[in-house]
Model the fold of this input.
Amino acid sequence: MDKIYLYTKSSCNSCLMLKKYLKYHEIDFTEINIEESNKSDSFISQIKYVPVIKFNSYTISGLDITKINKLFNIPNCKHSSVYLDHASTTKIKKEVLDEMDPYFKKYFSNPSSIYSISCKTKSAIENARLEVAKFLNCDTNEIYFTSGGSEANNTAIKGIAFANINKGNHIITSVIEHKSILNTCKFLEKIGFEITYLPVDKYGKISLNQLKKSITNDTILISIMYANNEIGTIQDINEISKIAKKNNIYFHTDAVQAIGKLHIDLKNSNIDILSLSAHKFYGPKGIGAIYLKSNVSIEPLIHGGGQENNVRSGTENIPYIVGLGKAIKIISQNKKAGYKVKELTNYFISQLQYNIKGVKINGHIVDNLPGYINVTFTKLNTIDIDTFKFMLDCNNIYVSSGSACNELALEQSHVLKSIGLSDNDIKNTIRFTIGEENSKEDIDYTIEIINKILLI
Done:
């Protein structure tokens, strides 16, 4: 067989990924670092970016796996896709899509219009509102629809801040909140508000004593997430909300990750404001909701025609509101799915710890969301985490390093930093999040591929 040449640069991450991919498939090649080679070589002088594969008359630039597989007769992965990133988003259910469909086509009228055909769209919105209220055990007039979790969080933080500016300017939150909370707080700091960011322990829990000590006469809001989106740690929301109530302070919780995984009973809680997002529980993206206890008044984030009882103006997104209502109704009726995810989580953790050396599970041992497994691989000596994820991807296994927001911005996880992980451990960490469509076979296949990758 003729020689295969792989042209690389020493600082090229894609080059490292491709080298590992070729070794994984036992393809011999000669590596040529173009930074250390003869610049007069006519082929090297034409290379604009690496990696480049040269084999006979064929040249492939970049990580074009489809072309590489075809060139070297590498069989495509036959295993069906294993999606293990449910904390990032979930696949919309067919029943949800079917419920939404008529409101794109037949029942399209503006619900604010006074003619008869708008009665159907108005009714659809109120039916969805009822489903959310039933699920959370609250009144329908306490539920308001938003464009998603980020808007709900912004509405909660800014809404309370601006409505209570004459009472105080101090807000308490934690260092591991979602970026839609942290960046909103940073914005408020710029205009004169004071923010206390509570630290967390190695499991991701805030200290209730530190929370109590942080309260001042100017504290108007405490905002602590129900459960963390990266490590799955569940906060003691009951105790935190009691502290807030005792001190006559509003309490908001970002429950985006918790909905459908934990039982939430708002009538029997001290939660004043709660945020949720449909795409985390098999509903459509671009729709969420905020719960505002009946005695809570906020300054609206969006001003306009006064829809949603003046809390959130703008023509209602009827199909997506219908989808949210249907999705939350399904999870309220399907308790078995939650048990299955919990069993798979325990199975995955046990298989990781038994089969793979140097595995450290992050997050709380007991107070953790089912399906959330945040793993630091301490023995990644010959492979970096991006290559690791790339190799998983090539085998139809889809995971992330953590929050999708951090991945997009190429930022290091503030959550993992806050629980005390070193920079090196953060780089070697992957978040696996299991959903109700995953199976034991998916877990076994994932463990098998991880083992193969680590042996390269």
Observations:
- The mean pLDDT is 93.
